[in-house]
Design a protein that fits this description.
85% of the residues lie in helices and 0% in strands. The protein contains nine helices and no strands. By secondary structure, the protein is an all-alpha fold. The longest helix is centred in the C-terminal third of the chain and has 33 residues, at 173-205. The model has no long low-confidence stretch (mean pLDDT 88). It has helices spanning 2-5, 10-31, 38-53, 60-70, 72-98, 102-128, 133-146, 148-168, 173-205.
């Protein structure tokens, strides 16, 4: 019982993570208000959650804002690309459905799945690795296929916590404001840390 309530116990650790998620989610929402900065905000969010996932205890505000500023250019371009890509696929799929062209629908849905899986890895990789944006996109695409099962887990986490939660449970919308996006990023960061560690170890041996 004493271990549960100690500073190193499970209860204290759980409360600490909830507090970190709450703070990060508010920072993410505030810095994403212009919409076009959502890419830089996502990179900054993952910069913090990846540190937490590895057992680090970053100073949340300073770490987040430093990452937001240092990764703003790449994050802005990546975020703008993802927003435009999402709009394109949404419009293309709707148009194909309206025109009753099932082959085009299948092709667009398949391409949009590749697009989504790549975006799942791109922002954590921008936060974790220092590389050119083009190389980051290629590596994100490769990793998403090499770790297909984990990519699906991340997709489900994002879909449930970011999209479905506020739609299916509107009465708990306030909870989503405090926990939604950062909660998904925290889960994804646990997975990404495992994936990145595997490839970092491989590169270290070569």
């Amino acid at each position: 019982m004493k271990k549960i309530f100690s500073l190193n116990g499970g209860l204290f650790r759980a409360m600490t993570i909830i507090y970190q998620v709450l703070c990060l989610n508010l920072l993410f929402l505030l810095t994403s208000l212009p919409i076009v900065t959502i890419g830089a905000s996502t990179v900054a969010l993952y910069h913090c959650t990846l540190k937490i996932a590895t057992g680090d205890e970053p100073a949340l505000y300073r770490t987040y804002m430093a990452a937001f500023k240092s990764n703003f250019k790449q994050g802005f371009i990546a975020g703008l690309g993802m927003l435009l890509g999402a709009l394109f696929f949404f419009g293309a799929i709707r148009y194909a459905l309206f025109q009753k062209q099932p082959i085009i629908v299948i092709i667009m849905v398949s391409l949009s799945a590749i697009f989504l899986f790549t975006s799942e890895y791109l922002f954590p990789m921008l936060a974790h690795y220092d590389n050119q944006l083009g190389a980051q996109i290629r590596n994100a695409l490769v990793l998403s296929f090499q770790n297909a099962a984990l990519s699906i887990v991340c997709f489900i986490s994002n879909a449930v916590l970011i999209v479905l939660f506020p739609i299916l449970l509107p009465k708990l919308f306030f909870l989503w404001i405090f926990l939604g996006v950062a909660g998904a990023a925290m889960i994804n960061s646990k997975i990404m840390t495992h994936i990145f560690q595997k490839y970092d170890d491989t590169e270290g041996q070569n």
